[in-house]
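2024-03-11 09:14:02 DEBUG pipeline.ingest accepted 1 chain
2024-03-11 09:14:02 DEBUG pipeline.ingest length=316
2024-03-11 09:14:03 DEBUG pipeline.predict start
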Amino acid sequence: MNRFSKLNLKKIKKYPIKDRKNLVSVKDFACLKRGKSVSSLIESMPDILGGKDLKYLIDGVLRAKKYNKTVVLAMGAHVIKCGLSPLVIELMKNGVIKAIAMNGAGAIHDYEIALIGGTSEDVESQIEEGFFGMALETGKALNKAVKNGASKGTGFGKALGEIIKKESLPYKDLSIVYNALILGIPVTIHVAVGTDTIHMDPDADGEAIGKASLLDFRAICSVVSTLDGGIWINMGSAVILPEVFLKAVTVCRNIGIKLENFLTVNIDMISHYRPLTNVVRRPTLKGGKGINLIGQYEILFPLLAAAILERLKGEG
């Protein structure tokens, strides 16, 4: 007799997401305030270390925008949980960000924001009774998006955007995935099976998850192939997206696409091995430049976004 009998996942209990306490609400999200010049603040920073790198990044983004080069934001889930979605969306609408890559958790938080205007459950209060990640609506919608993306060949990101649009969710205007769909900007979602709450759902389909995520990997390879003269920004992803980027760069170079003249940037609260190695250093060994900006991205990114948008308005 097998001592490790298969669990009956049909016994899993769900609850309505409206009954859940969230740690993040749209009322706390960032918003751009008009007032004193951000550029003057940036100019007051020393041309040393991080100050010099931040100025270089701002100039690089504006140069990429001017010459219609590809700027990619590869973002971990905490970017959404820190309330930065409105700024990401604003940069997309202004033609700065040309593509988005995110992990599976990012997709979950983005959908929940669109659905209820809140996300980031209190794990400690939920895990004792086994209810962490058991919101009914989240698992249902995300697993449906995965299956649609696999069966239709569109990938996970686009399929999720289409669900948010079809359901006309009340806070969809604060969804990065939805806005990207409307703007025609690709969103790719890169999943590690077993790491996301929706994988606990009995309806989770490993074959579909793998296929949809692989389709998105191939899509991001196409995006990376246009990166010469552009910028890859990794923000808040310590493992998955740096690994995805390194493999995408390898695919492009393997088939003869020249990738040398580009800027790679890592923005995070602490320095991690993989972003530093696989984003900042390795891809730029034969050309280009890598920057590592360490700080709270709920502080750094609004500063960066405001400076870029202010300069764009001035140049317009």
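2024-03-11 09:14:41 DEBUG pipeline.report DSSP finds 13 helices and eight strands in the chain.
2024-03-11 09:14:41 DEBUG pipeline.predict end
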